[in-house]
Amino acid sequence: MPDVTSRTPLPIDGRLAEIASVVAARRSAVITAAPGAGKTTRVPPALAGAGPVLVLQPRRVAARAMASRVAEEHGWTLGREVGWHVRFDRRFTRETRILFATEGILTARLQTDPLLSDFATIIIDEFHERSIHADLGLALAKQAWAARDDLRLVVMSATLDADRVAAYLGDAPVVRVEGRTFPVAVSYQPGMTVEDAVMSALPATGATLCFLPGAGEIARAQTSLAPRLAALGSPVAVLPLYGGLGADAQDAAIRPTPGRRVILATNLAETTVTVPDVTVVIDSGVHKVARYDAERGVDRLVTERISRDSAEQRSGRAGRVREGRAVRLWDARDRLREHREAEIHRIDLAGTLLDVVGWGGDPWTAGAFDWYEPPPPAATSAARELLMALEAIDRSGRLTPIGRQLRKLPVHPRLARLMLGDDMNLRSARAAAWLSEGGRAPDVDIAAIVDSPAFPRHLDQLARSLIRDRDSFRENESRSRFERAVFAAYPDRLARRREPTGDRFVLASGTGARLAKSSGALSHEFVVALEVRSLHSGGAEEPRITVASPVEPEWIVPTSREVVHTFDPAARTLRAA
Questions:
Q1: What is the pTM (predicted TM-score) of this model?
Q2: What is the DSSP string of 401-445?
Q3: How far apart are CA 142 and CA 301, in angstroms?
Q4: What kind and span of H or E run contains 82?
Q5: What is the Cα–Cα distance from 110 to 140, expressed in whole angstroms?
Q6: Burial readout 540-568 (b: 16 or more C-beta within 10 A, e: otherwise)
Q7: Residues 19, 151, 352: CA angle, nearest 5 degrees
Q8: pLDDT digits 0-9 by tens, 80-136
Q9: In the 8-state DSSP scheme, what is residue 76?
Q10: Do 134 and 56 meet the contact criterion of CB atoms below 8 Å apart?
């Protein structure tokens, strides 16, 4: 194993022997290290002497970037000694000693190899982000760790309740590593735009890192900044950095280059990847998170305020190489949530619990599955009801043949049921992309949205990626089959017209709602209410069905039958009905 300390020194280098010794003796460890300490690139090689290492990262860009960094530091061949495995992209062989992968890959591997027999060490990195995949991956990896006396399990994070994680792992040792940072001057500029902040704080050399919530905001800022920076005379590169970018574009943003540049990034640049030579951080103070959308019945990305620990992580990026500045575009008096909210408390759990069932666990009985943090009982109950309605599990909670097929698709089970019912047609893939990404096109039916020539290009690309593994696919064939697939995916959102004519419907929940007169589904007695919006909180006006799909009466099959016995006093008999 090459001596990593002969390369650029990092704060964690002096602790690597200790970490390797602790993991060898106890088979587990919790490592906390500040950003820049070097835990992600230095710890895995230090543990690889005992056998192959699987390192779980929350994002694809980090998995590829860290694999490249380790290969460069050790003189290894990327794809041989060290590699990556992310959705739609893999680069590794049987010789790979360190494999960087996204968290969902571990869940998929555990379905076919519950003991993770291909690896000697599992490292879950950046656990503080508390994605649902990380929570599930830790729980399943712990089961393999308990069953194998030669498997080692390590959890790493920049900010983490280390003692709590250590207790979950049977009082695992905790190793705390200090980072290396320089002072950062923090100022507040409420109401200032990111573009104006960049122009006023642009350093003479190096990089400016701007945090924006998503790809759309990044694209708009890039378009606005380009001519203003060009007018300065000296060239200033403007580079985007977010998860949906291609590998080359991501690499360009994190690769050190001479001259000045502005990096427009999402929150993946907080801790997941390191952008070198940053001395100025511009923080919008918002990010996008997945949250259950009751109006649509699936998770949706929403823009929210960041937490205080996220704000500290972001500003700290300006003090990695020398003294820096951080400009926060909100009022200093604003109160932020102290810590990030774990995904297990804010998203729909149908897909996660379907994975647990597929693995062989029991997520339905309290305490039967060893979660790091148990999900809310109401969320578990709702997920079970939905999975039964989708025919993914039977009444006893076991996986069905349909459930096994749904688990193969990288979308919410409801949307997977839609795609499966439409034979993986492009139309259904577009519908899945539109519904999952939070598109808005009110008062129409879903088929009109996805068939429109104006359908968003980025959503079309996402749709095609969902079905890229098929040898061939057909574009927008049977509309009737598509509409029936929509009903199969949303059986709980059935609505029936109240009167023979008119726009008033009653939902399966018993709530009344109105369907817009412009909707193509208005002529039908039954519709699927894909999106229902309350117009005025607490008001008397009924909610509005803004996105619908027609349902033919013959598609509706009773899910249960009930025999009611009544006593007829006149006939003195008991009647069943």
A1: 0.83
A2: HHHHHHTTSSS-HHHHHHHHHTTT-HHHHHHHHHHHTT----SEE
A3: 30
A4: strand 82-86
A5: 8
A6: eebbbbbbbbbbeeeeeeeeeeeeeeeee
A7: 105
A8: 999 999 876 788 988 999 999 987 788 888 878 889 999 999 999 989 888 898 999
A9: P
A10: yes
